[in-house]
Design a protein that fits this description.
The chain has 9 helices and 29 strands. The protein is α+β, with helices and mostly antiparallel strands.
Length: 397
């Protein structure tokens, strides 16, 4: 083996150093090695973090442009549930599906994906659910039922695309007068909607057999050329608290009548009560109906299939059966103003709501007039006759 002199070794080392520097500069120019960028992004992330107790610690509700990004520029916070969502999906209008809730139609499918669930009486003693999805993903959603005029008001709070199967005369009238984008199973059965074969064959289950899916909804939206993105500059959704300040302190600071409550019973009618139970370990509420745990069949049939939500809102409204209506349909006053209750983190406080018109959004306030703050996660909104007594831990409110 040939021996190198000291001078030759020194020249070889210098050449190697120059080569390494040259490769590093080349990679930097190509964007492959950018340590300075990583440092800059980390610095910017620290600078952008909101200080506790400031307005910036709340997630805003501006459509398509939530206030703060999360970890990467590809994720933002959803104004519907305050949870991370892909930025491109956050620009999409929500999809709101009218869900059957009569006990013979259970279990439902796909509703665990909803960010907001409205529950309200339709005809008789049983409620119907309007599930608002940031972007549905489920392969089976339903069963889908008909729309009422006040359901339309709920979904307009979020500029939602309405999915339903038929509707009352007043429901159809409100859809037409407010030019609501919608998919109707009466017209789209066999394409955007299908009949569950097992239910279809059962006696008395035909009206509870209409289902749809995320894929079919998207296909129908494209085919009907429905606007898919939120209106630029409009504001939808809620404020969500990212500050570690407990809900009890937030409620008391905003003038509400606060009390702890872990068991909640909401009487929609003489024969139907919605129940919730708070689980401190999860900081969420488990939902129950007349048959026990309220489940999503898409999640299976065990404990993991039960629905949980982070917040419960009770909206007290004027409500009455329409005189002379042969089916006992109801008129529900969704405009004006009224009282309400907000449950979160095992506690409850009084709130207020107001809505100027059917075309304008509902606004929710604490007693001192500040917008309510929700815990990130799903929210269940119970629209209830204002004379009803909500029972908390065996005492009426």
């Amino acid at each position: 083996m040939m021996k190198l002199s000291k001078k030759q070794l020194l020249l070889l080392a210098c050449s190697a150093f120059v080569l390494i520097v040259g490769i590093t500069l080349l990679l930097s120019a190509l964007g492959v090695f950018r340590r300075d960028d990583a440092d800059r992004l980390a610095s910017n992330a620290d600078a952008a973090s909101p200080a506790p107790g400031t307005a910036d610690s709340l997630l805003g509700a501006k459509a398509g442009a939530p206030s703060h990004s999360v970890e990467t520029e590809a994720l933002v916070y959803s104004p519907l549930n305050g949870l991370p969502i892909a930025a491109e999906d956050a620009r999409l209008r929500p999809v709101a599906v009218v869900i059957n809730n009569i006990y013979v139609s259970l279990p439902q499918s796909g509703i665990s994906e909803a960010a907001i669930l409205y529950e309200v009486l339709a005809e008789g003693d049983i409620t119907r659910i309007v599930a608002v999805f940031p972007k549905p993903l489920a392969e089976k959603i339903g069963s889908v039922r008909s729309v009422r005029d006040y359901f339309v008001d709920f979904i307009l709070d979020y500029d939602s695309i309405l999915v339903h199967h038929g509707g009352s005369a007043t429901g159809g009238s409100r859809i037409n007068s407010l030019k609501v984008d919608h998919l109707d199973g009466m017209k789209l059965e066999g394409t955007a909607f299908w009949r569950d074969p097992e239910r279809f064959r059962q006696r008395g289950m035909y009206e509870h057999s209409s289902f749809t899916s995320a894929e079919r909804i998207e296909e129908a939206i494209v085919k009907q050329n429905i606007r898919r993105e939120w209106n630029e500059g409009a504001e939808y959704g809620f404020l969500f608290n990212r500050d570690p300040l407990p809900f009890a302190e937030i409620a008391k600071e905003n003038g509400g009548d606060y009390r702890e409550s872990t068991e909640i019973a909401i009487p929609f009618s003489r024969n139907y009560t919605r129940r919730f139970r708070y689980h401190p370990d999860q900081q969420r509420y488990a939902a129950f109906n007349r048959d026990g745990p309220h489940i999503d069949a898409g999640l299976g049939s065990g404990e993991g299939a039960q629905l949980y939500v982070s917040n419960i809102i009770v909206q007290f409204v004027n409500m009455h059966i329409i005189p002379g209506d042969p089916d006992g349909r109801r008129e529900v006053a969704t405009t004006g103003s009224g009282a309400g209750l907000l449950f979160s983190e095992g506690g409850c406080t009084t709130i207020k709501w107001e809505r100027e018109s059917h075309a304008s959004p509902t606004r929710w306030f604490f007693e001192n007039g500040q917008p309510i703050q929700l815990k990130p996660g799903a929210t269940w909104i119970c629209v209830l006759q204002k004379e009803a007594n909500v029972v908390m831990d065996d005492s009426a409110q």
